[in-house]
Sequence to fold (388 residues):
Amino acid sequence: MKGKSTEIIASGYRGDSSKLERYHSINPPVYHASTILFEDYAELKTVGQGQYEGFTYGTDGSPTQHAFERAMTELEGGYCTKAFPSGLLAITSTLQAFLQHGDHLLICNSCYGPVRRFARDMLDKFGITTSYFPANVGADIEDYITPQTRFILLESPGSNTFELQDVPAVVKVARQHDILTAIDNTWATPLNFRPLEHGVDISIHSVTKYISGHSDVLLGSATINEACYKPFHRMCRALEIFASQDACYLALRGLKTLKVRLKQHEVSALELAGWLEGEAAVEAVLHPALVSHPEHHIWRRDFDGASGIFSFVLKPEFDEDAVGRFVDSLEHFGIGYSWGGFKSLVTAGKFAQSDISRYKDRWMIRLNVGLEDVADLRADVQMALSKL
Ligand SMILES: Cc1ncc(COP(=O)(O)O)c(C=O)c1O
Fold:
């Protein structure tokens, strides 16, 4: 007779070897595993010989992770995708894959802030230098390229200030110099902009945002073209990059409803943005889909839609106390970071990291427009403006 502990370990899940246990759920199962079992010694031996084609260990990912990665590859029109534990890790790991000592990196001036910290505190100590280009750059990217420039990191629209780069123009110049390009495509999602179709080599997402959509997942992804495969794959193996299975499951589920959610975010945000343009306290609304946006023609040319996050700049007479009163009196907007989720959120700060100097040091408010009824959101913002 077996001992109780042995019985417990042998009980329950026995794989899907029997037809009776086969279970074709519509979504993939989530496998929680570090150890993957082999059939026999012969199979184990093929692993050692580098000839085994299946999963060998938890860090290889799982069928759930691969299903999510496959979906992203199809949507982005890429060669392959890797899921990362967060959007920031997708960016920083990708940079590590392609840069080495002596290289120069160019980053968009309105990039997601922590990318600057990574360049300053990590890349710099490995002898990789970084400089920043205006967030509305086009063919004039040429002026920022040095003989050491190897990589250009775009983010269009850029964080908080929402300037657009002329991506095809930047790519054309980059290719002439044999420089790789990557873009943070989080704002647009692959539904509204497909960078690889415009010649960008790598498209990166904070899946944390619209794709997962419910503010309860941290995940990133990078989709590459075929030419980038070798160095990218080498980095993924060396760092043993893998993402949480639960996060991949939720992200894949989020993808299925992305289109309808995103449309509602777009419609509600545009209604609020357009109305805010006429409000007396507001100096400017920064939203690429508004005709008043300086790069609106680029958005019209390259994008299939907009998402639900934008900022507005207050008139100079309003100070930090006024901003605090505005933020604290909102009822439907949570005060918190991140975006792309169902709940509306607000953040505020001084205008920074931008080349639009006319707003420098002015107070700016960023709204992540969620899925609440837009009439309620508008009444809320109107009430909060009256407290300024
Ligand atoms: C534009 C952009 N890219 C990347 C990130 C980083 O994503 P994560 O929070 O998944 O690390 C963020 C996060 O706010 C972001 O706004």
